[in-house]
Amino acid sequence: MKNKKDIKESHETSISFLDFNSPEEFRYLEQLILYRLNVYFPDGNDIPKPLPIYKKWSPKLFEFIVNHKLNINEASLLVLGMIPHIQPDLFDNLINFKLNQSGDFQKIGGVRGKDFRGFLPTAEIAIFLLAEDDFNKRIEIQKLFWADHIFEKKKILWLDDHASGEPEMSSKIMFSKEFLDQFIYGESTQPKFSIHFPAKLIKTELEWKDLVINDELITQVNELKSWLRYNSLLVNEWNMSGRINNGYKALLYGPSGTGKTLTVGLLGKEVGKEVYKIDLSMVLSKYIGETEKNLEQIFAKAEDKGWILFFDEADSLFGKRTNVRDAHDKYANQEVSYLLQRIEDYNGMVILATNMKNNIDDAFMRRFNAILKFSIPEPDERVKIWRLAFPQDVQFYNNDQPADIPEMVKNYVISGGSIINVVHYACIKAFERQQNKDTAKRIYYTDVLAGIKKELLKEGKPFG
Q1: Tell me: the pLDDT tens digits for 122-132?
Q2: Is the N or the C terminus of the chain less surrounded, counting Cβ atoms within 10 Å?
Q3: What is the pTM of this model?
Q4: Are strands 199-202 and 173-175 parallel, antiparallel or unpaired?
Q5: Residue after which a domain boundary falls, among 157, 185, 213
């Protein structure tokens, strides 16, 4: 712990615990804290109220403040939320310097963390610093934490859940890691998959040539590409905002393994947009209101970024509403209603995939911009998939004779995903058969048939 002798001199004021290279916005907040503490614990030094010089602040933070027209209180609250993550000892140093009681001053607020031993700011300290004991200003600062404020809507800064029966303003100030990285390091990092962000970034190394679908489906997929490329230009350059929807909702339905997930990955890859697949097992909750809360984390982060949100096996979340028989049915229906409205409001593309179209709630069906049917491929399409799936330099054999295995097995009615599984199985068998002196890649018809049999039996279909 520093003492008075350790306090550094600065040009602006005689007191600073910050390193010379600390960002200008941190120096501003430090002087604001000293100014307010000096009101209650004067030491003979006249500490003036600081004014933020935004142009000297970190470039990304300054840009955000200007673009969103934030006022001085909003800008100060951003810095207040950032401080513990970058300068964790600042609060303790300043409070202990001014208070001999080790910070035992109720107006300041703040809490100690479970693992972090330092001071964590709550909404109370924001009110203490910014409202200056003015009741009307206190109300004004409290509104910065409301749900309709940009901080909460974009999940930049918000209040942690408060203990039952305790004042809401005693809650910790939470700060988005994404925006923290953006303001401090000048770039945003990829959101980390967790209970607070139950979505994974999906990418594919495949190309459109690897996706075998019919011509009608290709036309529909091209419509999705066009929307992703041109809708924002239509809104901004042709002044269509308010007259057309900023968002787009598509349903992909059909049996497993028919290319739904690959299509979504290829869409994002072609237009340069990130695709996040929502993990519904983490989203769904038996506790009332938790499902909506989990989903809101995703939608809030995704807003204005152009992300494609992908819900696989969507019927588990977007299923038909039921007749209300008990409280569980009531809240299940409320979840569906919430999802319907939230997807309607999202200004990007939302894609739902399901094996069972008939299970999707009718209210969703009416609002989809596009419904794409993925079918089990026809024989000619299956031949293409077989040829694409095997390594290009393999040799096909039936017993000891060369053979065109893709042509021989095209009449087995299986999906593209099942074909990949069979190819994987046959290639492993080829390695098992391969002799050390024989480097040829030989795929045998009997191994492919065995793989097909395994896939058909998994689906409960006869092998003949």
Answers
A1: 999 999 999 98
A2: C
A3: 0.78
A4: unpaired
A5: 185
Chain centroid to CA 394: 41
- Decide if 299 contacts 311 (C-beta within 8 A): no
Those residues with Cβ within 8 angstroms of residue 109's Cβ, 6 or more apart along the chain or in another chain: 121, 122, 123, 124, 125, 127, 128, 169, 170
d(CA 286, CA 266): 34
pLDDT digits (tens, 9 = 90+) for 143-175: 999 989 999 988 899 999 888 889 999 999 999
Same domain, 283 and 158: no
SS3 157: strand
Q: How far is CA 269 from the centre of its chain?
A: 17
Tell me the residue range of the domain where 260 lies: 199-373
Indicate whether 158 and 13 sit together in one domain.
yes
DSSP 8: P
| Position 412, amino acid | Y
Q: E strands, 319-427, where? A: 349-354, 370-373, 395-398, 401-402
Q: How far apart are CA 225 and CA 211, in angstroms?
A: 15
> d(Cα 158, Cα 77) in Å, to the nearest integer?
11
Q: Are residues 366 and 220 in the same domain?
A: yes
Q: Is 191 part of any domain?
A: no
Domain for residue 192, yes or no?
Answer: no
DSSP 169-231: GGSBEEE-HHHHHHHHHSSPPPPPPBTTB-EEEE--S--GGG----HHHHHHHHHHHHHHHHH
How many angstroms separate the CA atoms of 170 and 67, rounded?
Answer: 30
Whether 142 and 285 share a structural domain: no
